[in-house]
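Archive entry. Fields below.
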Amino acid sequence: MSSNNESIDRKRRSFLGKAGAAVATTVVAPGVVLHAAAPRSPEQPVTDAVRWGMLIDANKCASGCSDCVQACEEENGLNLVQMPEGADPEEWARQRPRWIRQIQLQDNLTGQVTTLPMMCQHCEEPPCADVCPTGASFRRADGIVMVDRHICIGCRYCMMACPYKARSFIHEEVEEKPTHTPRGKGCVESCNFCVHRLDNGRTTTACQDACRHQAIVFGDLKDKNSPVAKALESVKSRQIRADLQLNTGVRYSGV
Amino acid sequence: MKKIHFREWTVPSPRYWGVFAVLAAIVGVGLISALYMEHEGHWVTGMNNQIVWGMPHVFAVFLIVAASGALNVATIGTVFGKKPYKPLGRLSGLLAIALLAGGLMVLVLDLGRADRLMVAMTTYNFKSIFAWNIILYNGFFVIVAAYLYTMMEPKAKKYYFSVGVLGGIWRLILTTGTGSIFGFLVARMAYDTAILAPLFIVMSFAFGLAIFLLFLFFAFDQDGREIGGKLLFRLKNTLGVFVAGVALLLLIYHLTKLYGTKYHGVEAFILRDGGVYTVLFWVGQVVVGLLLPIAIIIHPTLSRSKGWIAGASAMVVLGGLAAMYVIIIGGQAYPIEMFPGKTVIASGFFDGVHGQPNYYAPSLPEILLGIGGFALAILATTIGVRMLKFLPADLSDEALDPHAGLKTGN
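PREDICTED_STRUCTURE:
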């Protein structure tokens, strides 16, 4: 009986506490809290218990295929970025944003050709975040490297510092954009592992879903049972520009 | 032993307002260009996702580097006690502040979100050398303003030496910071070396003194003041030493890069195969910026002429701009080597396919903004010397005997 009472009291207390917090946040700082709280529920904060990562098997990546690139463009609204009127198409190709691209390499000695997708490598020690004067470039606890578009001043120092040329500057006014990927003229952006998906409980990225050849495996690097951790255990993989010791979240095999 | 007097710039009003109007118009055009780029977005510039820093950075970094160098003349007088330099201290400080203001104007107006300047001033990531630079620039303004006050206000004279030393140290740190913006970039082959910091310091000495001399000669010529042969001899020799210093550090920079095999690609690009960058390096940076000025300065007869010294100074400035273009844009034009031992044969986003350099062609608004920053620096200096007593009334040998133990003051 008494334990029941205690349980009820606890519930009541918890209810009152939550109600009080709700009233306070509505009155004191609605903008701040709504903003921070929107993508994920407060019960599930981002922690370093998870590290999102990816293994790309270049042996499976097919030359001429651009499914991952197309999927990324659609998922993140990059296909909605229109060429400004009067722009030179050739110059525009260099100025338009891209989060993922396909690269084909040839070994100088053996002549062997390799195809792979390249994007933000989500470094554990990201040079872009190191150099960012305002801290707009940052690494989340779960390993995702992102840009806080509220404090990015558009200095482009992160683009100078990125060893993978993974970042794009928005050179033009953008009329249409997805709500989950806000985009504004004058800020820098790059692949964020489809963070809006992960924050809403999904566990895959658009590029991974689109890859017909199963060349991309994504998941939690810290979970030994995740497909990516298992794949990394079974195949030889490497980091691009491993000499920089950035401990990248994206690994490659067959390169 | 004579006391040095200072006097406002006394050119006739029409000439002063003429200079004012021309410079203000150039600043205005620069500001309109910035507004245009800001309004349209950076797609109207030559910059892109490969060359992210363009012409505005060439001018901005040049002016910021020159600003700290311009203060050098005052530092030599204060810290090293070189008396002939003391009368030049006020102009040195004024020009330093003005050049920094011009450079920062260009830098800030080229930001993607220039409207968020307040964010940059209030939100710091202290691991970023860029954030440190913001503090160093602001500190420079305050310290040099205080330094000028100790030069011009007799009551503050007791602080003259200590503030002067602080200014001298601060300016060295500032240029170290500016050079390190590039030196700390481990990702790019042309940077990633600590020698960029001392290279930038010695470049600042040369560029700052060259601009200082050009302004001094112009201002003195216009209202008929005299500069003595002995002072001229000292100043041109100092310029010569600084330019030779630049040559030495530039040589060490390239020898260091040439020694390590992994940098052979970028060295071949800058020194041999880089097209416009190679031409700007050899003709602009080396011949015009270093060799010709040194030749003039050591020439037995040419070096006695103020006109030739002005010419050498102008060459140092032009060579300096070429150097900035090669370092900043050339450094980005060389594609990042992500896959050593492999050649990129196809890319969806310009990854230097078959070694192709990244493309950049400066646009007119970028150049106009850069020139606008230059004009702002000269305009501010012109207004300063007109309104207040920054210029010594007389720098002739009789007025300025280095061995006579000069006193400075009003």
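CURATOR_NOTE: Chain B has one domain: 6-228+236-335+357-392.
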